Amino acid sequence: MPLWLREHRWHQTPTAVFLSLPLRGARATPANIFCSERYLKVSIPPFLFEAILYAPIDDTNSTAKIGNGSIFFTLYKKEPAMWDSLTLENADKEKLQCLRENAVLKAQQKAKEETEAKKATKEEHKKYALEATMKLEEAERKRIEDLKEKERQKVAEELELWKNQQKDADKYKSIQKDGELHQEIGQLKERKNEKMSKTRIPYEGTSKTRPKPTKGCRGSCSIFSPNAKEEQLPSPRSAATIKVNFTPRVFPTALRESRVAEEEEWLHKQAEARRTISADLSELEDLKEEEKNPDWLKDKGNKMFAMGNYLAAVNAYNLAVRLNNKLPLLYLNRAACHLKLRNLHKAIEDTSKALELLTPPVPDNKDARVKAYVRRGTAFCQLELYTEGLQDYEAALKIDPKNQNIEKDAEKIRHLIQGTMQGS
């Protein structure tokens, strides 16, 4: 049987009723209080307080404050008037039961409407996040297409310039070649004329001397004799193009400069990773290649977080974790999003996972470990688990003892713990 709380004090104004209800050592929470337009109930086993109010109140704006072993109610009247009493007196049991049932039904209807409103709001947020993501992806795709088009135009211009330079070089070579050919022909003619002048027979009246016959000739030999060999001009050299084929390679370095064994091992690991991703994430076949990169998804989540779109950032981090669950920064950033969304238990799970991955503790992961302890401590404190939160803040102070902000927050938590112990 419940113990009825009969002791209470109340006073009123034309617009509000102020009610004080002692708790007799019991500890109350907001979940122990139920209030509607005409019905007020406080259930703290084994104690029970129930009141059918004299007139309707505005249950939306009315408040209840728990402290100093009492509950203080501020009930705002729907119509300004002075009540004759706090509760409805001289009412039969059927009317009281009807009022109770109506209050419960209205509370259930109100809770259902709030749930539907939250659901609709959540759907709107998801829709907005999807639209924002699509806009960002469209802008990124357009930027990439513009860059490709600019590079295409640049390459086309460079190719056209190279062709013109090749044409000019070919013309210059042909002109130079023709000039050299004419020069060689002129030199050969000069040599021929010199030889002819040396072997020409002088006129008999002018000189008594006669040239000695050359070896192999009987008497005098003429340059026009059939045995004389004329020098012939060499034919121009023929031009040709030599095609060079290279062995196809994945890496840009030359084969003689590369480490074949290490490269083959790297390619094998990449192929295994792609096969694993394809097997585990068959539903993500429509994603682009860059969208399957955890680093790209992490940067995208960081951009969404900076814009205040925490749901979209969580979605990006979730996909990145599915692709690579060994990056502590993914869990650390997702925990920050959960703190903003008030998903405190998920924030604690992500920070704990990040701390597991940030082992062994080294100077390079010092900042990440401090962030993980501070974010987990914040989540504990928001859950009113101040002792666990203080432990995490003290762990962060051991890593970074010169951080004054962490020291101030830890001091606030110590005061909260002392106040809670004194109140209890």
Automatic annotation (TrEMBL):
TPR repeats lie at residues 370-403. It is found in: Cell projection, Neuron projection; Dynein axonemal particle; Nucleus. Pfam families: CS, TPR_8. The keyword Coiled coil applies. GO terms for cellular component: dynein axonemal particle; extracellular region; neuron projection; nucleus. Residues 88-165 form a coiled coil. One of its GO terms (molecular function) is nuclear estrogen receptor binding. Residues 3-87 form the CS domain. Keywords: Cell projection, Coiled coil, Cytoplasm, Neurogenesis, Nucleus, Repeat, TPR repeat. One of its GO terms (biological process) is nervous system development. The keyword Repeat applies. It comes from the Eukaryota. Gene3D superfamilies: 2.60.40.790, Tetratricopeptide repeat domain. Residues 203-223 are annotated as: Disordered. Its main location: other. This is Dynein axonemal assembly factor 4. It comes from Pachyramphus minor. The lineage of its organism: Eukaryota, Metazoa, Chordata, Craniata, Vertebrata. The gene is Dnaaf4.
